[in-house]
Amino acid sequence: MNVKGHLEHIDEDIPVRDESLFLDMVYRFAVSAEDVIRSLRLNDYGTKEIDLGELICPDLLQDDNISVESMREVLREYLNNVKLDIEAGINDPNSPMLSDDSIERNTSRCNLDIVRWKDRVYTAEREELDLAVRGLEERINAYALNQSLALLGRIRTERGAVIPEILGLEGLRLNGALKGEIRAFSKQLYKAAGLKYFDDTELLYKLSFNACMKAAGWNELSDEELLEKLEEQKVPVELLKKYTGRDVNVKEKEVKTVTDIAREVGNQAERLSGCVNGESSVDFRGQNVHYIEMPTASYGSALKNLRDACAEDKNSKQPLLEGIPRPLTLKESFIARIMLPELWNVYLDTLLGVAYSSQDKNKFKINQVCRELAGLSEGVDRSYLPIDYNGFNGIELDRRNALYNRLLTREQFLAPHPAWYAALEGDTDLMKAIADHVYTEQRRSALGFVLCDAPQKDQLRHLCVDSIDNNSNADSYYDLVDGCCFLMVTPN
Asked: How many helices (H) and strands (E) does the chain have?
């Protein structure tokens, strides 16, 4: 049974935040710090030694730049400045048993400590305010994203599609700037509500900002280098000064005219729409052909079976690469689905290669007619093909410039999404035909473009397109030794 599908790698909800951005890392750091402090205060640890690594959000520690020690430093500095344990009478400042460690002073060692924290700091009124602020934040973000996407959709319909990688038009997300403002607002709200004891959420966010600056190595950058990082990560210069006190010398940039921008967009479209090595897909639309599914155990064995079958069929219509029958490209596979609708119900493996860099986790390359994959032997028994990423010939893209590993709306797919656009060789008519078939009232999100996590070594993987039951995702997570299904093209 044809059942490939990596739904576990896809987030079916359209995300409100983009985890690749620096400000989002700051937000996640600050939220995790708040959660750790709350956990220390509201749980009875008895005589247990505290392991901060167990309390910090696991997703945060997956970032190479963030460590348990960086969180410990922020907690200690914050708790040394905001001495709620003393102010609220949880601890006696004159007690000879009082610890010098601010983290320890905020750790409950008996149930009485927890009762005091709840009665004096984590009151019902504060909990109600926190819940209301979280709801406000979510509504603001959702409104901004939905309204901006609707506006972009209308403009694209009226003026034609543009390349998001140039203009960055993916919908308005206020997360970065909004998170810090929400923290400041919470502090003001606590005061206005007359709470006697409360945390300084604005200070904790500021300390988190500086910790992430240090972790990312931005403190060591020159003004010019730092400005490039701020622009790349969409961090307003004003926020840098607000949270770090650092002034940077902003140089005037060359002003681009409308003609300049149009030329850039045109060049980008041409770059993404062309095939590497001068090869191109065969367009079978309008031709009298038939498609035969050829499922096998691995990519290498599927190549051999395909060539053997084509050698026996003297009338085979299979596309050739240097005179040898080759698997279909992603574009050819979707054309096959348009011509033979039952093919939407099966997964299809393709000749499209996706190369990953071990040096830059954000960069990857697409080769629509990949010679390296076409040359695999039957006995290949590894998950991927080792390559030299820098020497690999392909269209290079940056995963920070679009949404990956999550389902796309019709508007996000047709924007066009840069990886889909490149993989389908710039065929916007085919993209619209795909969208018309996939998106329905019941299926408003689909067609995710699934990338692998940052690899330890440069590697090449093939792209598989999932069945429509699995949202027709373009998926490069599959190993070369997973079950493989090619299509053979024959006369009808």
From this structure: 20, 13
